[in-house]
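Sequence in, structure out.
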Amino acid sequence: MIEPGNPAPDFELPDQNGTVHSLKSFAGKKIILYFYPKDNAAGCTKQACGFSELYPQFAEKGATIVGISKDSVASHKKFEEKYHLNFTLLSDTELKAIQAYDVWHEKNMYGKKSMGVVRTTYLIDENGIIIKAAQKVKAAENPSDMLKELE
């Protein structure tokens, strides 16, 4: 995890529509940048739907939401359509941003060790500086917790 006070690493990744975004494309806005393991997984769906539901309140506070996972553009598009998500999902199939933001770690599930994304959320200010970092967040609570951080 990158500590607050540090610059957020730049990235160039396609969204669910194939449009490429970089960190710079969000300049001038606060960004809730969250990394999640997988489209359609129970926790990931709760987290995404929570952010989608609260999106108007984030927008009122001048913040945009961006989710990143290693799923494909096509997977993100299906996820967006199935749950009517209203924010940007970026595809990082090559793990470039995932590794740059230090969220790719060994995980242990039911005694089986594997590498994967540790659910992590960053709040980045208008100038690209990380002002809050939360690792191993609770999926269902993360959207409302991050909204409180903006107050």
